[in-house]
Design a protein that fits this description.
mainly alpha; two-stranded antiparallel sheet; 11 helices; about 55% helix; about 5% strand
Length: about 230
C-alpha cells in the first residue's frame, strides 16, 4: 500500500523530517516541505558519494520526501495528513527502511526496560526481604519527586496492558505492607528505567543492581541527582 501527503504546505506532527542513512544527517526541525527538499538536495550534492547513489533533482527528491513523511504518518496513525493510494506498494527507499529498523530497535529496547523493571520488583517482593529503611526511602523519593525524569500519567500511557497489570499487582503488595513516603503523590514513572517510583524507592539495592543494564545506567546518569547512580558507586 502506498501513501502520499494530502497537502505539502501543511506541517505533519513533529514536523517534516528525513535521515540520510550514511551520514545520519537531519534537516532543520519544523522546516517547510520545500525547505526540506532544498536541504536534502544540498546535502547530497555536497557529498559526491551521496550524489552518485541518490537522486538530487528537486522534483525527484520531493517525491521521495513525500513518500518518506507520508509513511511516517501512516505508521503513527496520522491518517488525516495522507491519502492512501491503490495499486502495488512503492518500493521503500534505503532511508525509510533504516528509519523503520530504528523504530523497531527502539521498541524492543523499551520492552526490555519494562520487563527488567518488573522482574526487579518481583524478585524483591517474592523474596520476603524487608524494604529499605524508611529514612532511605524518603530520601530516595525526595530526589525522584523533583527529578525531570519523573514522568507523569496513568500506567497505560507508559506500558502495554500486561505490564501495567503486573505493576498494579506489585503496588497492591506494597500497599498491603503499608509502605509509603511523604512524596508518593508526586511519584509516577522513571523515564530512564521505566520503573514505578512508588515501588522502586523501597527496593533494596541488590535487587536493582541485579537487573540494571549498562544502557539504562547511562540514561540514569543524565539525571541531575539520581540516587540509583549514587548508591551503585
Amino acid at each position: 500500500m502506498a501513501y502520499r501527503l494530502q497537502n505539502r504546505n501543511k506541517q505533519i506532527p513533529n514536523g517534516y523530517t528525513y535521515i540520510q542513512p550514511e551520514t545520519k544527517w537531519r534537516p532543520t526541525r519544523y522546516c517547510s516541505f520545500s525547505t526540506l527538499v532544498a536541504q536534502v538536495v544540498a546535502h547530497r550534492k555536497g557529498n559526491p558519494k551521496l550524489a552518485e547513489k541518490y537522486p538530487t533533482l528537486p522534483e525527484t527528491v520531493a517525491e521521495e520526501m513525500d513518500e518518506y513523511n507520508a509513511s511516517i504518518c501512516a505508521r503513527n496513525g496520522w491518517l488525516g495528513y495522507i491519502d492512501i493510494l491503490g495499486g502495488a506498494p512503492i518500493p521503500k527507499t534505503p532511508a525509510l527502511l533504516a528509519e523503520e529498523q530504528k523504530a523497531v530497535s527502539a521498541a524492543a529496547g523499551r520492552v526490555r526496560k519494562i520487563w527488567s523493571g518488573v522482574r526487579t520488583l518481583d524478585d524483591w517482593l517474592d523474596s520476603g526481604e524487608p524494604a529499605v529503611a524508611q529514612e532511605l526511602a524518603e530520601n530516595r523519593a525526595g530526589k525522584c519527586a523533583v527529578c525531570p525524569f519523573n514522568g507523569q500519567g496513568d500506567f497505560t500511557k507508559w506500558f502495554t496492558k500486561p505490564a501495567a497489570e503486573a505493576i498494579r499487582r506489585q503496588i497492591a503488595k506494597v500497599t498491603d505492607r503499608q509502605l509509603k513516603t511523604s512524596h508518593d503523590e508526586k511519584l509516577v514513572i522513571c523515564e530512564a528505567c521505566l520503573c514505578p517510583l512508588k515501588l522502586k524507592v523501597h527496593t533494596p539495592l541488590k535487587f536493582i543492581k541485579a537487573h540494571v543494564s549498562p544502557d539504562v545506567l547511562d540514561e540514569l546518569k543524565k539525571a541531575p541527582d539520581c540516587w540509583i547512580v549514587a548508591e551503585l558507586k
